[in-house]
Backbone:
C-alpha cells in the first residue's frame, strides 16, 4: 500500500489555482489579422493545449511541493523472535539497599541500580519485543502500556532507583500486569517479569483472581528475586520447629503460590549483579517465540520531485516564451 | 487595447519563477535555534481530585480528568525535542513514573501513560501538599528539569494553627516551573468511595481532620469552651471547620509558589499550560534543521500565477477605466 500525503493539508485548498492556465494562455496577446479563412491548424491546437497543460502541472506541482508532498511512512508486518513482556518492578524502599543489605557505599551498586542497568541492556537487546512497565509498592502503578518506544521504556526503568515507598504489594501489581496484557489483543507470546527483592502475603481474594486470570491466558512468569546476601532463599524450607506461615516466610509462600498457577514459572535468585546478568540472559534465551511485529518505514519526501517537475514544465513555458514573435504594433500595413 | 507593457513583465515573471524553483531545489536545510523545555509533571491523585468542579457548570469534569486533559494537550503543544517526565503525588511525596523523554517521538506512550493515571494508584490518604511539593522539587532537581505540579492545594491534615509553611530546604529558583491549581473557587463536597471503588456519598464535617493539633495551640485558644492549658489546650469541643469541603486553594498555592520560586497558574482560568510553561520554565536552546524550500517555492508560485492572472487583472482594470472614460464622454 502506497499513500501520498501532504504535511500541510490546508495548502491543497490552493490547487484550484492550477486551472488558471486552462483559462488563460501565458502567451502575450497580440493584434494580428484574422486567420479565420485559413481554417484550423491541428498542430497549433496541440501546442496551445500542451503549453496550457504545462502551466497547470507547474502550478499544481509547486503547490504540492509547498504543502510537503510525501509518501506516508508505512508499517510492515514482519515475523521475528520475541515476546510481549510486562516488567513489574518493585519500588519499595528496600530496593535502594545493596546486595549486602546496607545502603550502598562509594563504588557499590544498590540492588535497583544493578537491576536497572541490566534490564536496560535487556530491553535494548530485544529488538522485536513490546514491553510494558508497571510498578508496585504500597499500591500498583501503571507506568507504560506495551510499547516499542525504547527511550520511553529506558526512562521508566531509570526511574526505578528513585527512592521508593514503604510496602510491597505483589498481588495487586500482578493483577495490573495481567490487565496491561489483557488490553493487547495480539496473539504474541506473553510474559511477566517480576523484579523484586522481597515478597508479601497475597490476599486470598486476590490469589483467586490471579489464579483465574492466569488460567485464562497462557503466560510465562519470571521472578527475578534480588536476594540480600545471607537471607533465606525462596525454596529453603523453614528450620525445624518454626511455623511455616506466609507471614513468616513470604518469599517461600509466594514461590509456592506461583507454582500452583499452572503457568510456566521460573524463579531466579540473584545475590549479586553477575547472577542478575545470568538470569536476564536466560530469560532472554527462553523468550524466543515466533512473533509478528510491525516495522515502521520512514516516510519519503517527494517535495524535491514536485519542484523538479514544476521546473521542467516552466522550462517548456520559457521555451515557448522565447519563441514568441513580437509583431510590431501599429506598423503600417 | 492590448497591454504591450505587460509583455516584458510576463517574461520577467516566468523567468523569476524558474529561478526561484531552481533555488528551491538546491537550498540546503537550515539549522535554526529553537527554544525547548524539559519538565517533570506531577499529578495530585488524592481524594479531593475526584471532585467534579472543572469544566463548565453544564458539563462538569472531575479535577483529575481535567488535569490529565490539560497535560495531554501540553504534550501535543510542546515544541518537538522538548522533554516531559511524569510523576504522581499523594501523601507527602512525589513518585516518579518515568524520567523526562522527548515528546514528539514518544507521544503515544506518554499520552497513554497520562490516560492511565488513576486515583487508585494512591498509596495513602493524606495530602500534605507543601511537603509533597518540596519532595517533588527535589526529585525534579535530580533529573535537571523544571516542574509542573498539578494540585488543588488542600492540605489534609491541615497545617498547624497560624498556617506557617513547612521549611523549604531546596535551592530556590534552581528548579523553575509552575504550580497549576486544579478546581473551582466555590467550596464543594468531596465524594467518598468504599473499598470496592463505589461512590458512597460525600465526606461529612466529622469525617476529616478539621484542625491540626500536633503543634502549639492557636493564641486565641483560651477563649474556647472547656480550655485548660494542660488538659485541653485546644478547648474541649470537637474541632469544626470546612476542611471536608474543597476548592482550589489559590492563596496557599501562591504562597507555596512564592516560597519555592515557582509560578502559579489556575487551570480553570488558563487551561492551556504551554503559555505558562514558556513563561516559567528554563528555556533550553536546541538546533533543529528546518526545511526552507517552501519559501522560494511560494515566491515562484506567486510569480507563475502572476503570468496567468495578470491579463485577467489587466482586463478587469481596462474595463473599469473604459467604463469611467465612457461615463465621462
Residues:
Amino acid at each position: 500500500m502506497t499513500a501520498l500525503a501532504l504535511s500541510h493539508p490546508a495548502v491543497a485548498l490552493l490547487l484550484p489555482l492550477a486551472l488558471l492556465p486552462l483559462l488563460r494562455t501565458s502567451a502575450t496577446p497580440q493584434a494580428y489579422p484574422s486567420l479565420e479563412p485559413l481554417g484550423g491548424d491541428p498542430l497549433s491546437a496541440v501546442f496551445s493545449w500542451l503549453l496550457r497543460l504545462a502551466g497547470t502541472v507547474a502550478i499544481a506541482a509547486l503547490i504540492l511541493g509547498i504543502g510537503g508532498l510525501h509518501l506516508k511512512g508505512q508499517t510492515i508486518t514482519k515475523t521475528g523472535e520475541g515476546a510481549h513482556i510486562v516488567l513489574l518492578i518493585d519500588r519499595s524502599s528496600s530496593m535502594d539497599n545493596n546486595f549486602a543489605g546496607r545502603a550502598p557505599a562509594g563504588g557499590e551498586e544498590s540492588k535497583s541500580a544493578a537491576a536497572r542497568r541490566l534490564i536496560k541492556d535487556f530491553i535494548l537487546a530485544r529488538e522485536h519485543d513490546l514491553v510494558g512497565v508497571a510498578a508496585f509498592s504500597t499500591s500498583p502503578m501503571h507506568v507504560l502500556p506495551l510499547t516499542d518506544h525504547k527511550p520511553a521504556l529506558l526512562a521508566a526503568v531509570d526511574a526505578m532507583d528513585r527512592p521508593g515507598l514503604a510496602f510491597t504489594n505483589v498481588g495487586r501489581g500482578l493483577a495490573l500486569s495481567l490487565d496491561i496484557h489483557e488490553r493487547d489483543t495480539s496473539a504474541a507470546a506473553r510474559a511477566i517479569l517480576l523484579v523484586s527483592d522481597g515478597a508479601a502475603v497475597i490476599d486470598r481474594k486476590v490469589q483467586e483472581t490471579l489464579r483465574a486470570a492466569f488460567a485464562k491466558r497462557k503466560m510465562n512468569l519470571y521472578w527475578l528475586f534480588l536476594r540480600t546476601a545471607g537471607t533465606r532463599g525462596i525454596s529453603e524450607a523453614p528450620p525445624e520447629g518454626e511455623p511455616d506461615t506466609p507471614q513468616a516466610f513470604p518469599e517461600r509462600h509466594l514461590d509456592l503460590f506461583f507454582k500452583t498457577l499452572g503457568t510456566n514459572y521460573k524463579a531466579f535468585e540473584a545475590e549479586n549483579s553477575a547472577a542478575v546478568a545470568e538470569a536476564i540472559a536466560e530469560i532472554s534465551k527462553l523468550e524466543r517465540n515466533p512473533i509478528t511485529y510491525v516495522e515502521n518505514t520512514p516516510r519519503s519526501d517527494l517535495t524535491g520531485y514536485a519542484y523538479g517537475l514544476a521546473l521542467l514544465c516552466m522550462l517548456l513555458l520559457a521555451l515557448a516564451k522565447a519563441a514568441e514573435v513580437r509583431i510590431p504594433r501599429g506598423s503600417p500595413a | 487595447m492590448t497591454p504591450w507593457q505587460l509583455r516584458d513583465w510576463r517574461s520577467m515573471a516566468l523567468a523569476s519563477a524558474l529561478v526561484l524553483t531552481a533555488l528551491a531545489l538546491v537550498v540546503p536545510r537550515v539549522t535554526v535555534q529553537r527554544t525547548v523545555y524539559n519538565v517533570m509533571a506531577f499529578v495530585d491523585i488524592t481524594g479531593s481530585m475526584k471532585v467534579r468542579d472543572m469544566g463548565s457548570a453544564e458539563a462538569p469534569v472531575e479535577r483529575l480528568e481535567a488535569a490529565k486533559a490539560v497535560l495531554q494537550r501540553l504534550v501535543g503543544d510542546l515544541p518537538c525535542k522538548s522533554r516531559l517526565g511524569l510523576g504522581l503525588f499523594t501523601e507527602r511525596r512525589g513518585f516518579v513514573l518515568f524520567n523526562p523523554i522527548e515528546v514528539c517521538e514518544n507521544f503515544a506512550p506518554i499520552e497513554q501513560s497520562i490516560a492511565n493515571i488513576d486515583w487508585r494508584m494512591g498509596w495513602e490518604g493524606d495530602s500534605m501538599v507543601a511537603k509533597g511539593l518540596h519532595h517533588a522539587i527535589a526529585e525534579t532537581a535530580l533529573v535537571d528539569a523544571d516542574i509542573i505540579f498539578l494540585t488543588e492545594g488542600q492540605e489534609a491534615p491541615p497545617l498547624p494553627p497560624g498556617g506557617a509553611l513547612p521549611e523549604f530546604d531546596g535551592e530556590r529558583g534552581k528548579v523553575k516551573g509552575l504550580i497549576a491549581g486544579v478546581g473551582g473557587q466555590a467550596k464543594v463536597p468531596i465524594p467518598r468511595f468504599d473499598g470496592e471503588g463505589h461512590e458512597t456519598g460525600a465526606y461529612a464535617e466529622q469525617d476529616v481532620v478539621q484542625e491540626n493539633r500536633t503543634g502549639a495551640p492557636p493564641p486565641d485558644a483560651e477563649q474556647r469552651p472547656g480550655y485548660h492549658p494542660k488538659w485541653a489546650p485546644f478547648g474541649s469541643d470537637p474541632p469544626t471547620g470546612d476542611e471536608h469541603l474543597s476548592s482550589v486553594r489559590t492563596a496557599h498555592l501562591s504562597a507555596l509558589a512564592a516560597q519555592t520560586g515557582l509560578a502559579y497558574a489556575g487551570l480553570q482560568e488558563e487551561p492551556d499550560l504551554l503559555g505558562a510553561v514558556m513563561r516559567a520554565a528554563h528555556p533550553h536552546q536546541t538546533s533543529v534543521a528546518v526545511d526552507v524550500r517552501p519559501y522560494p517555492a511560494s515566491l515562484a508560485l506567486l510569480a507563475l500565477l502572476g503570468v496567468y492572472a495578470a491579463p485577467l487583472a489587466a482586463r478587469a482594470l481596462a474595463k473599469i477605466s473604459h467604463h469611467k472614460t465612457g461615463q465621462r464622454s
The helical segments of chain B are 5-26, 63-77, 107-115, 129-142, 250-260, 273-280, 294-328.
